[in-house]
User: Which sequence fits this backbone?
């Protein structure tokens, strides 16, 4: 099998701090691979090592078979990078930013003008191509950052927290673009701490915690590993902090969490817990507005693996 | 990949970087202040009221302009690029790290050469000075621009995100150079110990070759000036690259077999 990325024991120390510890994984061509982890887990350091921005202390990586340490420039031709911060030239126009990237990647002028126009149309930025980027919102900057990473038609796209801090509309636009790119054959490496994003976008995810890969599999297989954690989401017509305290005292309930106007109850025995909840509501003269049993989410897997939750 | 083809690619990348940096950084207040206004104010504060030949004033102003304008661009660009992380855009592109540095030097040189034309054009059109050697004037301006651009780049290689930090450190070197390089007092009139120090200043050679081109007088020799300016350029470039590599965390430090295919 031909891999887009092969991480071979990537390790990074910052002084005495071990930021990334012997990270090994492969990403197949045309795969959307999610790299999940809490803040400071080593996601960005890993992406920086994979793209040649940071030198690993130990180990190496191959991009389409090219060693990132020994054949950096060849490997770099294969990928585009969308960093966590939209690092665009604010004092240049949208078009100039895009064309500058095209020049750096040696895209012939005719091609970069033609494809640049296409990209701006895809990202809904064509009408604003002459505007200076400094006037743009975070969402528009993000779209341009992705367009800039695509100007040389890379086979692999690194996306570091692509939708972090964006509004719903921009998030949906960017997710749709990621799916479209993947359908067209682009391998996606996505780092995120948004579990739901990884769940709906990724073919496989790796979870990194304290610099180590703690799990790597498809989202559904990962969820299956924590089947024991099931939950019930219930909404009563009344709410008080006492309800949470009282529910926590019931033996088969592990954890009770307030989620908006609902209460999430983690239990190993949903049928019996349901019965208890109905009795509890009756006893307290409360009405149940809605009640659902949920199988474990990727978030549960993530919490279990990273916090022992 | 053929070496010449690669060289052409890298040269094109440097030009693309220089072209964009010109548009981004030439209009920045720091560039205008330290690259344009500073040499003019320095010049006026020392020239007004002194009885010196006007052609010497023009050559001194040209040299000072070359020093300040050329060495101010790198210290503006590199820290700003680091601060806004735009340097990382360049570092993940398939171009050599040296192309980025050369792009910055090109950008500095174009600015410096353009700005240094102002006193020369004023001298030629209003004050009616005469150029005694146009070839050495061109060589002198070119070599001074590249030498001082490399000096600026060397200082900017220290990994700070604030242009002010670099400019402050650079001024500790640039300002004393003005007093020991024959800018205000010709080197031949300096005391012996200062003459010895002047030998180690790139500004002495820059001033000497510009003075020779405009006044026909030289303390060293225009050929020696050219050689020493190029020598200083090489020293500054090597030092700049070394400093960059010491602090850089990118894999560019270990790039081997570049563009093998």
Assistant:
């Amino acid at each position: 099998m031909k891999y887009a990325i092969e991480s071979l024991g990537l390790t990074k120390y910052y002084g005495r701090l071990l930021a990334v510890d012997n990270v090994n994984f492969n990403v197949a061509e045309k795969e959307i691979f999610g790299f999940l982890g809490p803040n400071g887990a080593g996601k960005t350091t890993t992406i920086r090592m994979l793209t040649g921005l940071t030198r690993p202390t130990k180990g190496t990586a191959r991009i389409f078979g090219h060693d990132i340490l020994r054949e950096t420039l060849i490997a770099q031709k294969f990928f585009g990078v969308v960093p966590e911060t939209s690092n665009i030239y604010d004092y240049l126009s949208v078009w100039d930013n895009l064309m500058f990237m095209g020049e750096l990647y040696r895209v012939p002028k005719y091609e970069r003008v033609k494809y640049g126009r296409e990209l701006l149309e895809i990202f809904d930025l064509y009408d604003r191509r002459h505007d200076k980027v400094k006037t743009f919102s975070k969402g528009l900057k993000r779209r341009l950052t992705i367009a800039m990473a695509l100007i040389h038609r890379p086979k692999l796209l690194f996306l570091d927290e692509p939708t972090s801090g964006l509004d719903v509309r921009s998030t949906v636009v960017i997710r749709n673009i990621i799916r479209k790119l993947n359908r067209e054959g682009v391998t996606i490496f996505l780092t995120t701490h948004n579990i739901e994003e990884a769940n709906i976008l990724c073919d496989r995810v790796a979870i990194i915690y304290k610099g180590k890969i703690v799990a790597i599999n498809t989202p559904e297989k990962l969820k299956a590993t924590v089947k024991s954690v099931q939950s019930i989401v219930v909404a009563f017509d009344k709410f008080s902090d006492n309800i949470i305290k009282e529910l926590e005292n019931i033996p088969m309930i592990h954890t009770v969490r307030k989620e908006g106007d609902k209460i999430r109850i983690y239990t190993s025995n949903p049928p019996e817990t349901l019965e208890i909840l109905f009795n509890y509501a009756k006893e307290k003269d409360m009405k149940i507005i809605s009640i659902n049993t949920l199988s474990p989410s990727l978030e549960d897997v993530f919490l279990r693996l990273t916090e022992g939750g | 990949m053929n070496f010449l083809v690669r060289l052409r690619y890298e040269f094109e990348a440097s030009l693309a970087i220089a072209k964009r940096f010109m548009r981004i950084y030439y209009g920045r207040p720091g560039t205008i202040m330290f690259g344009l206004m500073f040499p003019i104010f320095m010049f006026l504060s020392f020239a007004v009221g002194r009885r010196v030949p006007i052609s010497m004033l023009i050559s001194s102003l040209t040299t000072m302009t070359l020093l300040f304008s050329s060495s101010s661009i790198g210290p503006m660009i590199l820290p700003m690029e680091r601060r806004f992380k735009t340097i990382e855009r360049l570092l993940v592109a398939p171009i050599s790290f040296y192309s980025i540095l050369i792009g910055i030097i090109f950008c500095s040189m174009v600015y410096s050469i353009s700005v240094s034309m102002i006193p020369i054009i004023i001298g030629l059109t209003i004050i009616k000075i005469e150029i005694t050697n146009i070839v050495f004037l061109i060589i002198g301006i070119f070599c001074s621009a590249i030498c001082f651009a490399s000096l600026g780049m060397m200082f900017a290689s220290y990994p700070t995100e604030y242009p002010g930090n670099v400019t402050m450190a650079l001024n500790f070197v640039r300002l004393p150079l003005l007093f020991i390089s024959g800018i205000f007092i010709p080197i031949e009139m300096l005391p012996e110990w200062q003459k010895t120090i002047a030998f180690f200043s790139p500004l002495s050679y820059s001033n000497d070759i510009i003075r020779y081109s405009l006044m026909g007088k030289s303390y060293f020799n225009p050929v020696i000036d050219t050689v020493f300016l190029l020598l200083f350029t090489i020293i500054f470039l090597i030092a700049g690259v070394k400093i960059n590599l010491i602090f850089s965390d990118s894999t560019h430090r270990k790039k081997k077999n570049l563009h093998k295919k």
